[in-house]
Amino acid sequence: MATASYTRTRRPSPAARRAARVRKRRVRLTVGLLTILGIVLVIGLHPLKDAVQEITLPLRHEDIIRQQSHKKGLDPALVAAIIYQESKFSDQTSSAGARGLMQITPDTADFIAKQSGGVAFTHEDLATPQINIAYGTWYLRWLLDRYDERKTLAIAAYNAGFGHVDEWVKRAGGPDEFDPRTDIPFPETKNYVQQVLARRVDYARRYSRELGL
Q: What Rg do the C-alpha atoms of the chain give, in angstroms?
């Protein structure tokens, strides 16, 4: 004859029940916070990304850049990259006297004014974004024409001067033989060329609409 056996189950103590309730509340709170955080990240991801990019890759005076680039047949992303490398879009004067967004020296400014007919130009005008970008883009166009649209040579000349670049090209055996990795003797200019070309890609990708690309 089979008999049934019963095991008496002990109820949790009041302290254990309180601890269990606390744990459940903590779990619910954690889940709720994670859910809210996920929503905030999804909603705020793009503005946050834009804010970071605005700091690391700023763009100012895009209307002037578009206008002057279109007028002179230039790539506006390249112009923006040169401005970034020269001044980070901040009006300033270097120890060598280069002024403004595109860091134009007085001698270069005088050359541009003479060639472009800027009879009323003064060096103080370089602090004006419209004039500074107009002069800088004129000079970049002139350099590109000088080097048959070879961007690397024009960018190197913008930094080191076309006199130096002409010597380097001659030493390399001509523009077709010129290799910026080995034929630019100035470390600063070599790095300048690399940085401008890299930033040109970044500006084209990030600000295509603003630059009219």
A: 31
The reply to whether 86 belongs to the active site is yes
Catalytic entry in 54, 86, 149, 210:
86
CATH tag for 62-206 (out of 3.40.250.10, 3.10.129.10, 1.10.530.10, 3.30.70.790): 1.10.530.10
Q: What is the pLDDT of residues 12-47, one digit of tens each?
A: 666 666 766 767 777 777 776 676 666 656 555 555
- 104-149: per-residue pLDDT in tens? 999 999 999 999 887 788 899 999 999 999 999 999 999 999 999 9
In the chain, domain spans:
12-56, 62-206
pLDDT, position 106: 92
Label residue 131 left, alpha or beta by phi (over 0 means left) and psi (-120 to 50 means alpha).
alpha
Cα–Cα distance, 164 to 156 (Å, whole number):
9
Strand partners of residue 89: none
